[in-house]
Design brief:
The complex is a heterodimer.
Chain A (H helix, E strand, L loop, with lengths): L8 H13 L5 H12 L5 H13 L3 E9 L5 E8 L1 H18 L7
Antiparallel strand pairs in A: 1-2
Chain B lengths: L4 H12 L6 H11 L4 H22 L1 H33 L3 E3 L2 E3 L5 H24 L8 H23 L7 H35 L1
Antiparallel strand pairs in B: 1-2
Helix pairs in contact in B: 2-3, 4-5, 5-7, 6-7
The chains are: A alpha+beta, B mainly alpha.
Chain lengths: ~110, ~210
């Protein structure tokens, strides 16, 4: 069983999508970024489930935007990676690179 | 995709999974649905219900356990008198019985459809009882019990496969029990939806 602080693949993909999107990171573009990366349709509900888990862990913070008519009068929820989140991503990258080294079949 | 479609379904999702805050998520789906197919839209809505239910159950395991126990208890309460009723129906449909000067009897095929009727009512009642006792959670607390009930068709399928081998799919007379048990999870869900419906009236009265 992984330690509670370890980042899963979904967590890592969402955090990287947040870093790429910057200030415009809300559900729709985050979903598109992940879809382009995995090359298959994804459920926005599962993206939100991951984001909520990351918010609970303090890796992501949220901000509510203004409601717009094309969204049925519902407000956007913007997500931003925190300093702790960036550190977790760096640590995950280091761990993966360490494991990656010395594997010619993955070169 | 038509823009009027989301209004009904978003209300439905809020009814089915009321304990989660879906506002931003539903807004995202509404916005993206303009560029996507209906299939995508309905898939996303189904995912909202399933993921929301899973999160609700995962966050409140004891409540989910209680809901499942209520479902099983309802089945026991419903089926205890049903067994006695079945005995009476069997006697009446296999000949009949004299009560004073009267000859009480039933058509011989009654014994075939009575169990299916009892199953339908019993499982729908269990779904109804769970939904009524967990109204603030919509249908989320119904899902563990529905999954448990899904195990019944699996057991029947394994049992049939053990006895008949791969021929189970080409021997229609033996598929009867399987098709009737496959309908049990559906009965649970329909009962649950019926259990939710009075909430709306109560909420309207309050407002």
């Amino acid at each position: 069983m992984p330690a509670p602080t370890a980042l899963g693949t979904n967590d890592l993909m969402i955090l990287l999508a947040l870093m790429r999107l910057g200030d415009d990171a809300y559900g729709v573009p985050i979903g598109r970024e992940v879809e382009q990366a995995v090359r298959r349709p994804i459920a926005l509900a599962s993206v939100y489930a991951t984001l909520d888990r990351l918010v609970e862990r303090g890796l992501v913070e949220t901000e509510v935007g203004d409601p717009t008519p094309e969204r049925g009068g519902r407000a956007k929820k913007y997500f931003r990676i925190t300093g702790k989140g960036v550190r977790e991503v760096r640590a995950a990258k280091q761990s993966l690179l360490k494991l990656w080294k010395g594997l010619p079949q993955l070169g | 995709m038509a823009t009027h479609l989301p209004t009904f379904t978003t209300r439905l999702v809020k009814r089915l999974v009321p304990s989660q805050d879906h506002d931003a998520l539903l807004g995202d789906i509404t916005e993206e649905a303009r560029h996507r197919s209906r299939l995508w839209y309905w898939g996303q809505m189904g995912a909202v219900v399933l993921v929301g239910s899973w999160r609700d159950v995962h966050g409140r395991p004891l409540l989910a356990l209680r809901a499942t126990v209520i479902g099983i208890a309802t089945l026991v309460v419903m089926f205890a008198p049903a067994v006695a009723l079945l005995r009476v129906v069997r006697v009446l449909s296999e000949g009949g019985y004299y009560v004073g000067p009267y000859w009480l009897t039933l058509p011989s095929n009654t014994i075939r459809w009575i169990p299916a009727f009892i199953n339908t009512v019993g499982f729908a009642a269990s779904g109804w009882a769970i939904a009524r006792s967990h109204r603030s959670h919509g249908i989320t607390m119904l899902l563990p019990f529905a999954l448990l009930v899904c195990g019944i068709p699996a057991i029947v399928l394994v049992n049939l496969a053990t006895h008949l081998g791969p021929w189970i799919f080409v021997t229609p007379p033996r598929i009867g029990p399987l098709s009737s048990t496959l309908s049990l999870p559906v009965c649970v869900l329909v009962g649950g939806l019926l259990g939710l419906s009075p909430v709306r009236k109560q909420q309207q009265r309050r407002t």
